[in-house]
Amino acid sequence: MGEKDPATIKKIVTEIGVELSIKLFDETKEVERGGGMKTADGTRRRTPGGIFITLFKMDPNVTKEQKTRIFGDMRQVDKQKSRSRKRARDFGKKLEDVKKTMEEAAKPADVFDDEEVCEMV
């Protein structure tokens, strides 16, 4: 279905069973035939896998508990990824600061001004 995370599709099928999965798959094909589905911000078109997942989330036959079993642990993973990206960004900024400090320290200092040099010569 073109989903970047096929494990999620597999979890959904395992959770809701073959019958409801086939129903959602048929609905996915209908949406695709009708021109597809945009993402929430409207900037991109969803993949068929994304449509399937969205239809799963919207289906009244799917309980909140089932959704939590599928996506609950994914929220934790997303939070961890977000924290890791923030730490990497912060580390990069600190590294840039250290680099600037080292470059400043490596510049030759003007020990004498031009007038003092003339007096020495």
From TrEMBL:
Protein's name according to its UniProt entry: Phosphorylated adapter RNA export protein
Origin species, per record, is Caenorhabditis angaria
**Chief site of localization:** cytoplasm
What broad taxonomic lineage does this protein's source fall under?
Answer: Eukaryota, Metazoa, Ecdysozoa, Nematoda, Chromadorea
Entry-linked Pfam families:
PHAX_RNA-bd
Q: Which InterPro entries match?
A: PHAX, PHAX_RNA-binding_domain, PHAX_RNA-binding_sf
Q: Quick check: keyword Ubl conjugation in the entry?
A: no
Q: Which family does it belong to?
A: Belongs to the PHAX family.
Query: Which GO terms are recorded in the biological process aspect for this UniProt protein?
Result: protein transport; snRNA export from nucleus
How is this protein annotated for GO cellular component? cytoplasm; nucleus
Q: Where is this region: Disordered?
A: 74-94
Task: List where in the cell it is found.
Answer: Cytoplasm; Nucleus
Q: Which keywords does this chain's UniProt record carry?
A: Cytoplasm, Nucleus, Protein transport, RNA-binding, Transport
Any one Gene Ontology MF annotation carried by this entry is: RNA binding
